[in-house]
Amino acid sequence: MASTVSFSPTNVQMLQGRSGRGHSAFGSCFAVPRAGPRLRSTAVRVSSEQEAAAAVRAPSGRTIEECEADAVAGKFPAPPPLVRPKAPEGTPEIRPLDMTKRPRRNRKSPALRAAFQETSISPANFVLPLFIHEGEDDAPIGAMPGCYRLGWRHGLLDEVYKARDVGVNSFVLFPKVPDALKTPTGDEAYNDNGLVPRTIRLLKDKFPDIVIYTDVALDPYSSDGHDGIVREDGVIMNDETVYQLCKQAVSQARAGADVVSPSDMMDGRVGALRAALDAEGFHDVSIMSYTAKYASSFYGPFREALDSNPRFGDKKT
Predict the structure, then answer these.
(1) Are residue 143 and residue 283 in the same domain, yes or no?
(2) Which of these, 189, 248, 276, 304, has the minimum number of CB atoms within 10 Å of its CB?
(3) pLDDT at 235 over 90
(4) What is the per-residue burial (b if ≥16 Cβ within 10 Å, else e) of 95-122?
């Protein structure tokens, strides 16, 4: 048991201690004494389990027991002198800048930077892509060695289990739709019993607390391989495509999606999706919009995984 001794020092602002296995290292870590009301304080002596720590010394070089004894007696050392480090020879002597905001003070030590940093990346910040298909078993993706289109019976659930073990709880679904279900208008995109809605329901049943993102675009469902409905002259029809995308997003939300992610790049689709979701009561479903995309060859393996390469032209428009 730890024993306590009461004392009543005067003119003491406060006692500051350095944590040390359950005891306070009083010593030269005292605050600067100042005039003020008489305070009633209590010093806690280390317990028998902590006797081995008695030899630990405070920054002043004195033992913890010596520091505690001074605290009980009301003896407080003078604050150490403020020593200004020497600047290199030739440094100009100037008046300090007249400013009260100096952000560097919050970056002066690793502990402060960790406390005040705006961004801290952890596994919980990542979203794991899951390529899915209608089959029960996993199928390798030729252009992405080591990656698979996951079957719903084994691979899909196993992948989510493994990700959750390392702290990843967010997933985005990318489907490979059978050619027989693809049409020029991508109607399969909003089939409530399609591959994506069924996968969402399966995952939410097994893992209710995970966050599911969905891809909103017509290219996996289009027989033309484009992100929108293609007119006979090769022009992508913007507004008609947005109408289809709204139905797709609502279908995904109805299945349990937490975030819909339009990657189609149609004009006005984000506002239209928000209005469509709200009209159906899905006010809590978020939208993660793609603000910029590039006509890059790096999309090649991804499009092979989804079998969504354009049948003609490119996707630069």
Answers:
(1) yes
(2) 304
(3) no
(4) eeeeeeeeeeeeeeeeeeeeeeeeeeee
